[in-house]
């Protein structure tokens, strides 16, 4: 059952993340390191900001797992292995945050190394989908390993892709973790409930500094850490509870996955650019430029920062709806797949409407067209 001691551990992890993240803001300012560049097609903040938020997340997770050793040994065991596994991808992201010189290819390789560690040590991977023909292929080791590495690395990268506006990535991940915690609670898997609670607390400890004012950013290290941790929690819940459909965590994490896949398609086949080529045409960017930013009045840094903070709440809704559906239909693979198709279709409709500038919901009526 739920151990009341877990509440104190969660509160301590939250407090530690809040304090360490606050300190990192001033550490970056004092030493002038770890700052985000304020130029580029994907930069919408108005001042130079620390990218070292991932360190605050890591400290919070380490403290929470360390405090769990005696009272919650299974939480400490699983969490400890995940901490070891995340070292390659976190280190690659942190070096990029400090130097801006780590290639995307190397970071992808490090993400794959982290995924391989979990695959071989904890034996956790994509072993079933409850879709007959895919499960047949997963019986073959090559397909099993390739699918697992693709899913884990892909979600890590997807989390980094949606990290474009204040609170978007951290808020989205917080909703996902909460939904997975509810999933675990429905089957009374208290170890996973406690792990989700710890992860949620740490994420919120960072979130209070990131939204709405954007005082510090996740950086690549933070985005990779949260992406890796979240996808592993999803795999663990399915691995430990065979009565939960594997499509439930997929639906919970669908928004960043659809964003990534569509971005790759858009760059390669519509714009004839390399798939990894950065651009300013993500859904969150269109929401900002088409629906929220008013170039005629949002001219000061304060107003532009306020517009930046309004993007995340409008897109959190996508994950909230998917998370609710995943909990309601957690054991019904067909329903989950159908809802996922509906959700992806809505994403495409929304994206198309914003590009063509004919979005029809009156409360989000665009002010005027802007050049993309």
How is this structure best summarized?
The protein has 372 residues and is mainly alpha-helical. It is 71% helix and 0% strand.
Strand content: under 5%
Number of strands: 0
Measure the end-to-end span.
53 Å
Largest sheet: none
Helical percentage: over 70%
**Total tally of structural domains:** 1
Class derived from helix and strand content: mainly alpha
Radius of gyration: 20 Å
Oligomer: single chain
Q: Report the average pLDDT across residues.
A: 88
Overall 3D geometry? globular
Number of helices: 16
- The low-confidence runs, each spanning 5 or more residues with pLDDT under 50, are 360-372
Can you give a write-up of this model?
- This protein is mainly α.
- It has one domain (5-364).
- It has 16 helices and no strands.
- The protein is globular, with a radius of gyration of 20 Å.
- The N and C termini lie far apart (53 Å).
